[in-house]
Design goal:
This protein is of the alpha/beta class. It is built from 10 helices and 11 strands. It has a 5-stranded parallel beta sheet, with helices on both faces. Helix 6 crosses helix 8. The longest helix has 14 residues. It is globular.
């Protein structure tokens, strides 16, 4: 997970990175909803939102937290050029002596999950930035395969602007749509498509974030009401 996060994860000394663990504050509603998903029979989960709202931060944090008690994979769709299943098979082949092929990799993961009695959670960030023209179809097929497995789950993030295109191919809803519908409620802001809509910070979240940033960056000034409104975005 940490190797795959490498290009987007950073430290306080490099705050321009997309995700800095020390600067991240949990989004309570998202964390509660995702834990409900982990404890359910649902196979697919999605975080959707506009550009810059914090999807990558959220999915990185969830992956690291999930890693504590589950078997986790993480991929950044913007920098992988093959099917997610091919990359998973490639990563497994580094560890196990027996070769895994992409068409059997989910079944093998399910067997591992059953053996260790843990969920296998595959996180795929920023699918809207994928250079793979078949990403919608491949996610659809992954979702269909997971339907018949016990321990494998998928969590993805995507911009709202193309979410409908991910969930429909030639006007027909994909298997990913079907699986997401089993857990998520339709979101009216995105044409009643399923997912968790990550929005601007709430007042409660800002009240947690601001003291953290002030402490880490040694800022002793006050945040004006005008600036506070800007920080919501």
């Amino acid at each position: 997970v940490l190797n795959r996060m490498g290009p987007i994860i950073g430290s306080v000394d490099d705050p321009t990175s997309k995700f800095v663990k020390e600067l991240y504050c949990n989004r309570p509603n998202l964390l509660f909803d995702f834990n409900e998903f982990l404890n359910s029979d649902a196979k697919a989960y999605s975080i959707v939102g506009s550009a810059g709202v914090g999807k990558t931060n959220a999915i990185c944090s969830l992956a690291l937290q999930t890693l504590e008690s589950n078997f986790v994979f993480f991929y950044n769709a913007s920098i992988i050029n093959k099917s997610p299943l091919e990359h998973i098979a490639q990563d497994l082949n580094v560890v196990f002596s027996g070769k895994s092929t992409s068409d059997l990799v989910l079944k093998k993961l399910d067997e591992i999950g059953l053996f260790i009695n843990k969920n296998i959670v595959i996180f795929i960030d920023a699918i809207d930035e994928s250079r793979n023209a078949d990403i919608s179809l491949e996610l659809s097929e992954m979702s269909l395969a997971c339907r018949n497995l016990t321990k494998v789950k998928i969590c993805i993030s995507c911009k709202t602007s193309i979410w409908e295109k991910i969930l429909k191919i030639n006007g027909t809803h994909t298997h990913l749509f079907e699986e997401l519908n089993k857990f998520h409620r339709p979101i009216h802001q995105i044409n009643n498509k399923p997912g968790f809509l990550l929005d601007d910070f709430t007042d409660l979240e800002l009240n947690t974030i601001i003291p953290l940033y002030k402490n880490i960056f040694k800022f002793k000034g006050q945040i004006s009401e005008k600036l506070l409104k800007e920080l919501h975005n």
